Amino acid sequence: METVILSLVIWVPIVAGLLVLAAGETRPQVARVLALLGSLAGLAVAVPLWTGFDRSSGDFQFVELKPWIDTFNVNYHLGIDGMSLLLILLNCLTTVLVVIAGWDVIKQRVSQYMAAFLILSGLMNGVFCALDALLFYVFFEATLIPMFIIIGVWGGPNRVYAAVKFFLYTLMGSLLTLIALIYLYNAANGSFSLFDLYEVQLPLSVQVPIFIAFMVAFAVKVPMWPVHTWLPDAHVEAPTGGSVVLAAVMLKLGGYGFLRLSLPIVPDASHELAGFVIALSLIAVVYIGLVALVQADMKKLIAYSSISHMGFVTLGIFIFSAQGVEGAILQMISHGFISGAMFLCVGVMYDRMHSRMIADYGGVANKMPVFAALFMFFAMANSGLPGTSGFVGEWLVILATMQVNFWYAALAASTLIFGAAYTLWMYKRVVFGAIVNPHVAELTDLNGREMLVLGVLAIAVLMMGLWPAPLGEVLHESVNEILRLATPGRKLLIGM
Amino acid sequence: MQTLYLVVPLAPLFGALVSGLLCMKISNRAAHTVTIACMVISTAAAAMVFSDVREGHTFNGALYTWLVSGTTHYEIGFLIDQLSATMMVIVTFVSLMVHIYTIGYMADDPGYNRFFSYISLFTFSMLMLVMSNNFLQLFFGWEAVGLVSYLLIGFWYTRPTAIYANLKAFLVNRVGDFGFLLGIALVLMYFGTLDYQSVFDNAKAGALAANTIELLPGQAWSLITVICILLFVGAMGKSAQFPLHVWLPDSMEGPTPISALIHAATMVTAGIFMVARMSPLFELSQTALSFVMVIGAITCFFMALIATVQYDIKRVVAYSTLSQLGYMTMALGASAYSVAIFHLMTHAFFKAVLFLGAGSVIIAMHHEQDMRKMGGLRKYLPITYLTMLIGALANAGFPPFAGFFSKDSIVEAVHEAHAAGVPGALFAYLAALGGVFVGGFYSFRLVFFAFHGKERFDTHAHAAPHGHGGAHGKHNHVPHESPWVVTLPLILLAIPSVCAGWVIGDFVYGNYFGDSIYVAENHEGLKRMAEAFHGVLPMILHSVSTLPFWLALAGAGLAWFIYIVRPDLPGVLRAKWGVLVTVLEQKYGFDRFNDWFFAGGARLLGNGLWKIGDVMVIDGLFVNGAARLVGWSSTVIRKVQSGYIYHYAFAMIIGILLLMSVWLFGAVYMYQ
Fold first, then answer.
1. Tens digits of per-residue pLDDT, A140-180?
2. SS3 A94
3. Contact (Cβ atoms closer than 8 angstroms) between residue A357 and residue A296
């Protein structure tokens, strides 16, 4: 029987988004309720994926295949493995939380705001499901539009610069990918199917440029040093919800792309250039860690911390071991929870104080004890404390890296110090201390909605930290399959 | 029995959750009742587990699988043997005492419930640490106690010094954890598992004996040495060994009960426990053991010296803790693990007494910690005085108090190591002897300074107002003895401070630890000491003819002379040895150096990378540069599209000329 779950996962949020748009700006409350229902429906349709997923198989599951553009043999081809599954669930959950978080914070153009997030959510699910390279590309690019609008419309004072920088940076990156895909289409005798692309024999001299073309796009998304500078600007200007989705889900498109396209399609080039990617990842961990330390703007600090943590994703991937790749994927999921929560925490304060500057705060704990406790929890998770999800991925990646090189592992492990330093130093200056700024004295503690959103994330972070085994179980066979596809020499064409 | 194992850590966790999550809803009374009831259950369960283990029933098994990744299984599980059972009893007992004491000490603090939640959470974490049967859970507990320590040091979060100290403590510990994590990663890499038993069995079988690792090109180091030293770096952080000791004195910013529980009796001994647990690994590397011994020796002697110039009563005890931790570390380096754990135990009791006693003094003095404003307190605080005197006697190592047996054994073990020609042991032996003298001095300096001599406190002055619990006592300004919830734990802890040492025959020289501690065949120091041991009483009698006894006595005598007989001397000495005193008061300049070099350096580097790397080069040159380039080239190109026909015609002519020349030259080239 043909399943349609994945189609539902993609289209339910998009259709819901269109309905919300249709509700119009005159009735914001209707738009909010509709958006909440839509996002919950999106999460609900994704639940069967978790329960019905066959954990003993590394194949793509829930596959759907329908012709889309016959002339070019492009198909509406969907399917997920364990990695996609976790990212889809993360995305659906994040969407619900973002809708709730924006409930009465957003007062202008409510329906458009909500619709943008719902549509974005559906499009990102599309990226995680697509098994046709062109379909992947279309979804991948389409996600730019809602995010561009979110930053550009509901953003801060410098939002236009940030939105354009975000758009151009990411668009430039992905244009090369399109060229690479067209080349591969020809090499695979006219097919965009990932299954066909996975089997195309290619000489190293072709693999390397294709790898680089992919890498530019994905590295910008992750983002890797040195193509990361769009992210701090985008985060600073984006509304809280935008930052949350950007950090929690959108950055994962990069890591996902590496694992879905780069490694299986050009395995030899991936191995050939692994050292280069590892070097960039380690620079991200150390250099960005230091840069994060000196930020005066909380959002910027968390943005840099994001980049530093995402360094573990690329590092883990290019270790090419099950432990490394599983660590990378778990790091993506955990980073989704934690960075989302961190941005929400800053949002909570921003909504009250209208400042993101660390210097404007101090002594928040006196007025917002519950918030201070939750913020402390997420700050510790961000510092990779064992028992929180932040530890799982970093731990696995560091252990995996040790198998390759002691000093790589040592550099990666320096996050233990830097991560704690920048996170807790910020926390100290914002939350601890006596109240200096009279505005802080007027703060009120979390309301029910904020409690709900942060509470859900806290539970997720804690659960994943104490018992990540269920997630590992889902990933196990899928990661083995990715690594099998990424075996060097498997599809190397020699003598061309 | 296995359910009982679970009860030990989970009862405090339950207490922590109740008083923590409901801290704004329940009364103080409810919070302390729940947490203390849970602690009583936990302590009783630990005692039962202990007696069960004494009957020879050990346990090693998994609780649940945390994660399977690749081919590695990461599990959470318990290893209950003589070593962990001993630790469980110490931790739960001291924690229970501290819980009770807290009722009195924190009585009027607005964060009362939160405080109980934290100390129960700490107890849970510490128990998970000592009960672990694998490196992963060890690391979990390791970081978790660090977290709670961070929360508790910064408990009074409006005080700038407290929130500076807790950040510092966390970060310095993280430096240690950095090494620790790398050590664990190497263990996993070479043993393929993180389970203690498998790792130790492999190690004892000589699996890694010949392996080397090249950390620097051309430098092959013994792998086991590298692993052990990296693991020990973790211990240096947690157990505050030189040069990662800097956080412990500052941690005194936290409320006194936690100084006793965390920063004296239990958490800081986690490193000692860990090395003892890893004895099958450390025994394989003489280099690592020597390293451990020398670090311990440095900490022992030089930190004791700082204690002699401190005026803050808590800081004296804090530096004394550092020195005592140095003793334990030295014992580890001398392969005398059981002696180290023995000292850990006796120290837990007498140092808890000293801290809680100091706390009792602080309450009586309305939160005055400066000993210069005390003096003659013994008649106002008789119970506190007596218990602290016991603590001081034990700390200085006078027989028959608990500290004597353990400290004397350590000196002896280090001496044996020296006799066996262990590198670094001579230095350690001298440091240990020096430490005994200085220890005798600072312990009794505290006693004489605070409890004897002239009353220097002003009975009319109001103590500096503190943000917490200002209303201890009823504002009659004569110091008075603390309530029973404070003195009872003092008495209960003073008892083992006197007599815990008498079990030395079984604990150190008998087969108390069974297989939980491993000593290599060729490390015979402890064996020789066992042969010379003929019982507790002969040991006491013999001690009178040994150097450490007289050194301790000399130290105590010196303190008596300076602070009782000639109270003018401190000022004279200070003036005469100003440089030395300054060096000690500056704590050898570590704090200043760390602040300047590491904290300042990191910020400088971060700023440089950000302003130059990100803003100037990447954004300025490449990103915005590219944008400007596009803008500039379009202005140039725009000039070409002027709209005048003669411009276009001119361009066409140039173009045609160019094309023709290319064609022409091309043709010529072809025919050549």
1. 999 988 998 898 889 888 888 888 888 888 887 788 888 89
2. helix
3. yes
| CA gap B66, B498 in Å, rounded | 43
Test the B interface: residue of A165, A171, A229 with most B CBs within 10 Å: A229
Phi and psi at B220, nearest 5°, equal: -90, 120
pLDDT in tens, B32-87: 999 999 999 999 999 999 999 988 888 998 889 999 988 889 999 999 999 999 99
Buried b (16+ CB within 10 A) or exposed e, B44-82: bbbbebbebbeeeebbeebeeebbbbbebbbbbbbbbbb
Nearest CA to B497 out of B357, B382, B351, B361 is that of B351
Q: Which of residues 128-167 of A touch B (CB under 8 A)?
A: 165
> Is B312 within 8 Å of B477 (Cβ atoms)?
no
Nearest CB to A469: which of B66, B139, B606? B66
DSSP B426-480: HHHHHHHHHHHHHHHHHHHHHHHHHHSS-----TTSPPPP-SS-TTSTTS--S--
Burial class (CB in 10 A: 0-12, 13-18, 19+), B505: middle
3-class DSSP state of B628: helix
Quick check: B614 and A229 CB within 8 A?
Answer: yes
Half-sphere exposure of B128 (CA within 13 A, CB side): 26
Residue A318 and residue A270: Cα distance in Å, rounded? 8
Number of neighbours of residue B641 by Cβ within 10 angstroms: 9
B348-390 pLDDT, tens digit per residue, is 999 999 999 998 888 888 888 888 888 788 888 888 889 999 9
Are B211 and B244 within 8 A, CB to CB? no
Each residue of A281-322: pLDDT tens digit?
999 899 999 999 999 999 999 999 999 999 999 999 999 999
* Coil vs helix vs strand at B409: helix
Distance CA A307, CA A225 (A): 8
In order of A184, B3, B8, B173, B277, the CA distances from B184 in angstroms are 44, 29, 27, 16, 14
Q: With a CB-CB cutoff of 8 Å, which residues 401-460 of chain A face chain B?
A: 401-403, 406-407, 409-410, 413-414, 416-417, 420-421, 424-425, 428, 431-434
- Selection from B41, B66, B33 nearest residue B132 by Cα: B66
| Closest Cα in chain A to B142 | A386
What is the full DSSP assignment across B17-61? Answer: HHHHHTTTTS-HHHHHHHHHHHHHHHHHHHHHHHHHHHTT--EEE
Which run of H or of E encompasses A65? strand A61-69
Q: B613 to chain A: which residues are within 8 Å by CB?
A: 226, 287, 291
CB contact under 8 A, B178 and A434: no
Q: Would you call A398 and B185 a contact, using CB atoms and an 8 Å cutoff?
A: yes
Give the tokens for residue A446: 């979390």
Cross-chain Cβ contact A293/B606 below 8 Å: yes
CA distance B41 to B18: 15
ipTM attached to this prediction = 0.91
CA gyration radius, chain A: 22
Model confidence, pTM: 0.91
Contact A293 B157 (CB under 8 A): no
Query: Chain centroid to CA A458: how far?
Result: 18
Q: A376 contacts in B (CB within 8 Å)? A: 151
User: Which chain B residues in 599-658 lie under 8 Å from chain A, judged by CB atoms?
Assistant: 602-603, 605-607, 609-610, 613-614, 618-619, 622-623
| Angstroms from A73 CA to nearest CA on chain B | 37
What is the rounded distance in angstroms from the CA atom of residue A446 to the CA atom of residue A369? Answer: 9
Q: Please, are residues B516 and B81 in contact by the beta-carbon 8 Å criterion? A: yes
